[in-house]
Each structure stands twice: as structure tokens, then as C-alpha cells.
Amino acid sequence: MLEQFGNFLVHGLVTGSMYAAVALGLTLTYGILGILNFAHGEMLMVGAYIAFVLTSRLGVNFLVAAVISMLAVGLLGWVIERTTFRFARHEHLNGLVISLGLVAILQNIALAIWGADPLSIPPPLPRTLEVWGIRIGEQRLLAFGLTVGLIILFSLFLKRTRLGKGIRATAQNAHVAATLGIRTERVVAVTFSLAAALAGLVGALIATIYTITPFMGGLPAMKGFVVMILGGLGSVGGSILAGFLVGVVESFGGGMISSIFKDGFGFVALILILIFRPWGLFGQRPEREDV
């Protein structure tokens, strides 16, 4: 029983780390633009295909390919923000429509280039480890370590660096930040690019565990939205913690109740928690307005 519990917990934390990384990118985008970017999952998909081409077609080392994927998707995010979202910054509905349009555009570009057949990257670490009865693949551990390390680096970047403080200030109040000398245009572009880069890395990691298709970004993006809302809109720390929570809930629910309904347990948790805390687990309770 203890071994089974340990397996569920470890696999839940590994999956949760990826949810947290996706939600972190969505939270950064939402905090800086006020837009729920539905195309974030397609950034993940692009990163997966880039990693596939580099490793399977060009023979590049996987870690090098993952870094290149992250940089390439980050550059793509910068281009997208400068050419689309930049002009809808104060029109959130227009930004939402733009993100939905980007979903269709990126999916169809992927279909035209690679087709609809599932592809995969052979895991660079194919062995399975067993410690105290807990079995887990080395590739999943690699994905967990890289994802958690990047989440920590992002958190330190936001708290300790000048640009990170500028991002936080712009997210809180762009007009006040601009009056204080912060170049908000640059901050917005950099933030969107960083969120896209994070999605690109997660895509490369997912590609070694699951198959790659033009539509693979839909479910991770949906889970990212669940995690972001569950943690509290705009809360970076809340998104990270909620990501691990959802991963563990799905792991235990899928293992002990129903593997078929595994992806639904996170949504059940979201509904139950929002009934009692509509502002999310770690969000700030809105102040009541006197009528």
C-alpha cells in the first residue's frame, strides 16, 4: 500500500510540474496583458516539433535541442506579440479573438508541414528506476528536474532582477509603472516572449513522453487554465502550487478510482474549490463594494 501511495505521489508531482510550468506562462501573459492566451498550447506544440526535427532528423543532442526549442519559441512569441497582441492591449475581447485565430493558424501550419500522423522523440533516458518500490522512468525524472529548475529560476528572476521587478510593476499598474520610468512596451514584449519560451521547453519535454500532433497543445493549455484559475488569477506562486496539486489529484484519482476519468479529476477539484473560494486557493479575496 505504501509503495502504491509513493508511486501515485511521485508520478503526480512529475505531471504537476509540467502543469505548473504551463500555468506559469499563462499567468505571466494574463498578468501583463489581461488576456487569456488560448494559443499558449500551440507554442508548446511548436516547441515539440522543433525538438523532433533537431533530434530525429538532424541528430542533435536532446538537451541542446530543448534549449534551441525554448529560444526559438521565445522568439516566435516576441514576433507574435509585436505583430498581433500589441494592437489589442486595451481591447481584451479582441485579444481573445486573436489568440483563438492563432490556434487555428499554428495548427494548420503544423498540419501542412508535418501532417496529422503522430510523431515521437525516442527518450534519451529510456531506463526505469526503482527506489523503495517506486518505479519511474529516468526521462520523467529529467523532465521533472528541468521543469522545476526552470520554475525556480523564473521565480527568482521575477523577484530579484530589475527586469523582473519591472514585469511585476507593469502587471500591477502599467500607467504608474510608465510614470516611474519603466519601459512598459519592452516589458510586455519580453514577458510574452518568456512565457512562450517556457511553453517551448515544456513541449520539448512532453515530446519524449507523449506523441506529437498538431493538436497536442489543447489539453495541456486547458489544464494550464484550470491550474491558473485554481491558484488565483495573476498569482504566480498560486499557479505553481496549484499545478502540483492538480497533478497529484489526477494521479491518485486515476490510480485509485478511474483511469478513464483521470483528466476530469482536476476539473472536479476546480469546481469544488471555486464553490467555496471563487477567487482561487491563493488569490486575493476581492473587496466588497458598498451598494
In short:
The protein is mostly helical. The protein has helices at 2-33, 40-57, 62-83, 92-114, 138-160, 162-172, 174-179, 184-206, 218-231, 236-256, 265-276; strands at residues 128-131, 134-137.
Structure notes:
- The chain has helices at residues 2-33, 40-57, 62-83, 92-114, 138-160, 162-172, 174-179, 184-206, 218-231, 236-256, 265-276, and strands at residues 128-131, 134-137.
- Helix 1 runs parallel beside helix 5 (138-160), helix 1 packs across helix 9 and helix 2 (40-57) packs parallel to helix 4 (92-114).
- It has two domains: 21-216, no CATH class; 218-291, no CATH class.
- Helices cover 70% and strands 3% of the residues.
- It is built from eleven helices and two strands.
- It is mainly α.
- The protein has a two-stranded antiparallel sheet.
- The chain is globular.
